[in-house]
Request: fold
Amino acid sequence: MNVGSRFGRFRNSAATRLKSVYRWGPRQVQSSLRQVQARFRLYLVWLAVIGVAAVGLWSLVNFWDWLQIEQVGDEVSRESGSTTVRNIGLIVAGVVALPLALWRSWVAQRQANTSQQNLLNERYQQGAEMLGSNVLPVRLGGIYNLERLAADYPGQYHIQIMKLFCTFARVPIVYEGVESKNLRDSPDADAKGRSSNVPPPIREDVQAIMTAIGTRSAVGIALEKKMNVTLDLHGADLSHAQLSGANLAGVNMSRTNLSHASFFERFEPIIDPFEPIPSGPDQPKARPVLAGETIRPDLAGMEDRRANLSGAILSGADLSDSWLLGTDLSGALLLGAKLRKANVIYAKLRNAALIDAKLQRAFIVGSDLSGARLGGANLTKANLSSTKLYGTDFFSATLKKTDFSGALVSKNDGEVRAIGLVQQQLDQVKIDSHSPPSLAGVTDMSTGKQLVWPGKASDDTPT
Reply:
């Protein structure tokens, strides 16, 4: 066989090995590196053992006579060779045994950690597989298992489990033989796909998912902020969801269907039993609110049941007929959101963006809308009684028959006031004519003239 053929075979085998290395993925490379590191550490241990044994043998040969000498007072005696060998053996054995014991302890701890990690990975895989089951109790068991895993080991599993939950909530699997919220195929559904029956509640597995997301730990929320992770629930169907006390701050819920969702347990507004209670289709039952009066329901001891949606992305979301009593929506993005007939009672909407929002017949009594942007919003027949409107922007908002009774529009002689209003808007609103709110310093953004309530002359405007 000539040299050329040998060189050719060597070149081909080398090329094959290089190709196999290039085909390795990141996990294979990391596994190979770990194996090399483990072998290197093992070699170091054995080199240390051999080195210690060599040093001991050399000492035994060169210092044999010195080791046998024992001086007691003025007398010098010699120990037997067996005693000296025994002592040297004990020293060498101790020196050799110490690194070996440390190495065995390290190996045992590493094996224990590996076993624990394998068990945790199996728990995660098992929980994820249970979410795909056709049996509801199995899916619920998988949700509870993953929720507990995320709470116990947030650094390893919180982010990926929350993302898995969000994916399931956005696109829940329709299981064969399992009742679904979609009633389009129901025999009772009309031509437009609407059912004549009472709408069913949210699916139990989706409700369990939302409860897990809304009650996630503070450590998990801190991890989301640290890693700049935004939970994504956009477009999810969460109608009729029970989200009392849920912490959904910063969650992306754009175009989410939250109609008839409850963010707080329903309550009856506190009213004076001696006052007549007007009835009508436009507003919930409540007595007229006097100027400066604020409706404050008794929320003592219920702080942990108020939902937190501060900074949430709710653009295009459907919150129609939802119950948002005391909900924190400060800084939330509600661009084009639908809040028709929503009960936004005593809620925090400071600096919220409600541009082009649909708020027809919304009950926004006692809420704080300071600094909120309502440009282009439709507030037809909405109830803004006793709301704080300091710095609220009403540019191009529709205020037809909007109730401003008792609203706080201006304070400190107009230093802090609502903006973006024109007289044409105020001519359409509804107020308590006997005690209208103060408009001190509130001027028409087009003409610069002092605004007045409908039916009031400018000199009658209270200051």
